[in-house]
């Protein structure tokens, strides 16, 4: 089976995109296809696969699969690239429209120039903050309680956890210096920690000021990536919860691949603005299983 694909990235967080308006994938083969296309040696090379589809609830639907084949519930960089792609392909004609992700529906706005989209704004909605919503194991905690600057001991390290769900789970740790943050050492351990029954994306954040954060990430199912849109949103929410940042102010998040501009509104909605870039188009030879 020859599958047309487009490779796009948001600040270096890159995926292989397949247009489900044109290509039908068998449900059972998608995880293996995601693993295959993500493999830089035996496939194409990416952080995962994103499948754009028609939606019955919104203008277009996004399904995201990590490098390991697991399906994510949301993807900020993916949403911006889907918004770009859907507009440029003519599946949407307005510059404001809705995208359905597994975790819910978001409002997207594109800013086309000569029919091409480079910048996208997404209203990511309201974060989920209750321990049971992250989700985290509650044990002897109140399931309705929030997890803000809570001691979190792991692998002999004494960290302080702020947990945020942007439809997908994030463990945010504030550190003195992003350059010495233990992403490689602790990311894979925390990702699979039993306290997170669905696994977790792991972010380390250095506060430069209330309006500027440095950020590194170990993504659930993909490992270290150059950027994580939902993670950057979670970092901003965590910064507000910890009193470093202020609601209503736009915060610059410096990720390894570049900057995202994120604000949390008075009614707790998280607005993310940033780039979406197309790298290549091609045909993937997929021996249907
Ligand atoms: N690894 C994430 C999905 C991708 C999120 C990230 N690439 C983004 O831009 O938000 C998860 O399993 O929840």
Automatic annotation (TrEMBL):
Highest taxon in the source lineage: Bacteria
Reactions accelerated catalytically: (2S,6S)-2,6-diaminopimelate = meso-2,6-diaminopimelate
Keyword terms of this UniProt record: Amino-acid biosynthesis, Cytoplasm, Isomerase, Lysine biosynthesis
Subcellular location: Cytoplasm
Chief localization: cytoplasm
Catalytic class of the enzyme: isomerase
Active site feature: 75, 228
Site feature location: Could be important to modulate the pK values of the two catalytic cysteine residues: 170, 219
The protein's Enzyme Commission number: 5.1.1.7
Single GO term (MF): diaminopimelate epimerase activity
Binding-site residues, substrate: 13, 66, 76-77, 168, 201, 219-220, 229-230
Alphabetized InterPro entries for the sequence: DAP_epimerase_AS, DAP_epimerase_DapF
PROSITE patterns (UniProt xref): DAP_EPIMERASE (PS01326)
Family under the similarity heading: Belongs to the diaminopimelate epimerase family.
Subunit note: Homodimer.
Summary of the function given for this chain in its UniProt record: Catalyzes the stereoinversion of LL-2,6-diaminopimelate (L,L-DAP) to meso-diaminopimelate (meso-DAP), a precursor of L-lysine and an essential component of the bacterial peptidoglycan.
Protein name per UniProt: Diaminopimelate epimerase
Organism for this UniProt entry: Allobacillus halotolerans
């Amino acid at each position: 089976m020859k599958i047309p694909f487009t490779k796009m990235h948001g600040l270096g967080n890159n995926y292989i995109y397949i247009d489900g308006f044109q290509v039908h994938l068998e449900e059972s083969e998608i995880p293996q296809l995601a693993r295959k296309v993500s493999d830089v040696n035996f496939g194409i090379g990416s952080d995962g696969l994103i499948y754009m589809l028609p939606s019955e609830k919104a203008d277009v639907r996004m399904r995201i699969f990590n490098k390991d084949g697991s399906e994510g519930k949301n993807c900020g960089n993916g949403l911006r690239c889907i918004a770009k792609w859907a507009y440029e392909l003519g599946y949407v004609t307005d510059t404001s429209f809705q995208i359905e992700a597994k975790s819910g529906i978001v409002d997207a706005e594109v800013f086309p120039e000569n029919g091409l989209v480079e910048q996208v704004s997404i209203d990511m909605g309201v974060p989920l903050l209750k321990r049971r919503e992250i989700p985290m194991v509650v044990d002897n905690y109140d399931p309705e309680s929030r997890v803000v600057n809570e001691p979190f001991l792991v692998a002999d390290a004494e960290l302080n956890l702020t947990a945020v769900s942007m439809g997908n789970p994030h463990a945010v740790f504030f550190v003195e210096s992003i350059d010495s943050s233990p992403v490689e050492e602790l990311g894979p351990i925390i990702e699979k920690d039993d306290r997170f029954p669905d696994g977790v994306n792991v972010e380390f954040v250095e506060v430069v000021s209330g309006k500027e954060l440095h950020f590194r990430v170990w993504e659930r199912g993909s490992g270290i990536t150059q950027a994580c849109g939902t993670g950057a949103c979670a970092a901003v929410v965590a910064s507000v919860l910890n009193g470093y940042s202020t609601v209503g102010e736009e915060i610059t998040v410096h990720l390894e691949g570049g900057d995202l501009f994120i604000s949390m509104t008075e009614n707790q909605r998280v607005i993310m603005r940033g780039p979406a870039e197309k790298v290549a188009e091609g045909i993937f030879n997929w021996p249907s299983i």
